[in-house]
Amino acid sequence: MTATSDIPAVRFQDVSKRFGDFTAVDGISFEVPRGTIFGILGSNGAGKTTSIRMLMNIFKPDGGRVEVLGAQVDESLKPRIGYLPEERGLYKKMRIGEMLRFFGRIKGRDDAFLEQAIERWLAWAGLADWRTRKVEELSKGMSQKLQFVSTVVHGPELLILDEPFAGLDPVNRDMLRDAVLEMHKEGTTIVFSTHVMEQAEQLCHELVMIHRGQVRVRGTVEAVRAAEGREAAHIRYRLDPGQTLDGLPGVTAVADHGNEAELTLEAGADGQALLHALLARGAVTRFELREPSLHEIFKRVAGGDA
């Protein structure tokens, strides 16, 4: 008999979805192990949101099978899932506490559970004193936090977040990240989509990278980076007037971010020779040789589409 923990939280098996003549998702397969933070990565239009909507039974796949928590996805699983879509909305005329209780009851929670959960999450959001106020009175930042609270107030077993950090200021982005990490510690499986590779690199245990509706890369963050094979130099620098990062020894590509850059190296490149060449062109305050970032890997996968 298979233990529950051995059954993936999510399984896509050769799943496809078409809209007319356009194929949004083209035969993708992957699994999300229970208890992980899992990233679905890709640029806008890659097929991430379509995949999540099939996961949530909003769209039906044209081919293949989607399983959630060990069963083919259907409405009966919804109480065990929290879902924060990319297009979000709240009931603006409702009072905050009443709205959260309404959402929790829909998911099958009783008032005793919800009273503690609402108190906890409103305190996290800095909205404890706003419980009896109407949603329409909130600022944009407060509304963004309340949207997350309404998604998790029932204590989901599986949390699905579609571009959760989009539009958040740095403070609220860090708050949401910390909340996600805390829920993971409590045993929640978390799946989120993003086109910002740095977010995935910081949070994810495992990931799939989708491009043009197909899975191009999958695995743990460490395995994905190691599989690329090519080493990269991460530098922080200040060039002398007239100097550039062109023509450096052993460098095949440069991702220049201003004061920092990631240099893709050819096989067997001499790190010391590269460092000396950089110092001849200006000041170097950081020089680190390591595997390429997910951002650079995605650029390779997507090619000119990136």
At a glance:
The protein has 306 residues and is of the alpha/beta class. Helices cover 31% and strands 30% of the residues. The longest helix is centred in the middle third of the chain and has 16 residues, at 170-185.
Question: Can you walk me through this structure?
Answer:
The structure is a single chain. This protein is of the alpha/beta class and 306 residues long. It is built from 9 helices and 14 strands. It has helices at residues 48-55, 96-106, 111-124, 140-152, 170-185, 197-203, 221-228, 271-279, 294-302; strands at 10-19, 22-32, 37-41, 63-68, 71-72, 81-84, 158-162, 189-194, 206-211, 214-220, 232-239, 251-256, 260-265, 282-290. The strands form 3 sheets. It has a 6-stranded mixed β-sheet with strand order 6-7-8-3-9-10, sandwiched between helices. Strands 2-1-4-5 form a 4-stranded antiparallel β-sheet, with helices on one face. Helix 2 runs parallel beside helix 4 (140-152). The protein is globular. The chain starts with 9 loop residues before the first strand and ends with a helix.
